[in-house]
Specification:
This protein is α+β, with helices and mostly antiparallel strands and 136 residues long. Helices cover 44% and strands 23% of the residues. The protein has two helices and five strands; from the N terminus they run H-E-E-E-E-E-H. It has a three-stranded antiparallel β-sheet with strand order 1-5-4, with no helix packed on it. Strands 2-3 form a two-stranded antiparallel sheet. A hairpin with a 4-residue loop joins strand 2 and strand 3. It is elongated and about 80 Å long.
Length: 136
């Protein structure tokens, strides 16, 4: 991207890619909600993408990239359940650390942001087409 300015399609495309990573991590978190493990270390913890803004000095536009995916949120909770086949010698299991409500809110927010970027691309495409029609 050194000498070539970023265009609106690249900006929106990168934002859509970042939101797709966010939706995928949220889906993974929701898929693991309600699960239990034999130890706190084996229990699932929520994962979240870390976004980084990228500024393009040539075009003056900014976009977002996923820098990495990290473990986030609460620690697994210990629950006494001696009848569970995964229970340890003391009858405890560790519940996966996933806040389903927070995950559903994240899923809705990322889906809306993704859709907004789709609309940005559609609007830009329409404006380009209309501009070309003016030249006829």
């Amino acid at each position: 991207m050194a000498d070539n300015p970023m265009n609106i399609f690249q900006v929106a495309g990168r934002a859509m890619s970042a939101q797709l990573v966010r939706m995928n991590t949220t889906a993974s978190n929701l898929a693991n909600a309600g699960g239990v493990a034999t130890t706190a270390d084996a229990a699932y913890r929520s994962i979240k993408p870390v976004f980084r803004t990228q500024f393009d000095a040539v075009s003056g536009m900014s976009t977002v990239n996923v820098e990495r995916v990290v473990t986030a949120g609460e620690e697994p909770t210990k629950r006494y359940d001696p009848g569970n086949p995964l229970a340890d010698a003391e009858g405890n299991v560790w519940e996966n650390a996933v806040d389903e409500t927070r995950e559903l809110v994240d899923m809705l927010e990322s889906a809306r942001t993704y859709q907004n970027n789709v609309e940005v691309m559609q609007t830009a495409k329409t404006l380009i087409a209309d501009t070309l029609k003016l030249g006829r």
